[in-house]
Amino acid sequence: MDLSYGVSSGATITAELEIKRSRFLCYLQRTETEHDAREFIAEIRHLHPTARHHCTAFRIGEGTGEVRERSSDDGEPSGTAGSPMLAVLRGEGLVNVCAVVVRYFGGVLLGTGGLVRAYTDAVVAGLAAAQQTKRIVSRRSVELWSVEAPIADVGRWEADLRGRGIDLVDVIYGVGLDVVCPETGEVSRRRDPLATVLVAAVAQRGEAELLQEYISALSAGSREPYRTGRKMRECQQ
């Protein structure tokens, strides 16, 4: 099971710190692609056109392969802003998230160490705000298991499985079936309004065994779930 963390979609998460008269405003947003991240950065720049610095960091990926990382000091001394911000995101295992910290200079120089602490603390404050508003989500790789259910029983099966804690991600009515023409042997697809498929997400091996037991009991042994793929599934922390 691969596990990573991100922020849920929704309004931009914000936090503000004041350090020696400089204001540091942190903005966090979920971004699925590098293009999304750069668009978000442009939005924050447009929101604060007179700020001295707009420092950024983002990580893009699903947590199961390569994660693309980018950061920018935007005029601050090299390594004092973007890199510390990125280190916070990386340290928390966050993916598909972009952080922008806007600085309004207050007239007092903070020094290299002071800048590193300030930009680090700004992102930490943003993540604390995300945690308080329940915007941090875990993202895990799960197996998808499907089972064909009689149309007359699908409502009862769905309620029973959900009641037992099974994570049902979809109920597909009128699923596509392969139909073979007896004269030509040609295979075509059609939708059968009486065919229904329940799709469950399984994160651990033991859950798959439980699903099989539940389906066997519901169907009196006439149905058996089958594995149909994998996907990233989110759940709130």
UniProtKB/TrEMBL annotation:
This protein's GO CC annotations: cytoplasm
GO biological process terms held by the UniProt record: regulation of translational initiation
Pfam families for this protein: Impact_N (PF01205)
Alphabetized PROSITE patterns for the sequence: UPF0029 (PS00910)
PANTHER family in UniProt: IMPACT FAMILY MEMBER YIGZ, IMPACT-RELATED
Record family assignment: Belongs to the IMPACT family.
Name of protein: IMPACT family member YigZ
Organism in which the protein naturally occurs: Lawsonella clevelandensis
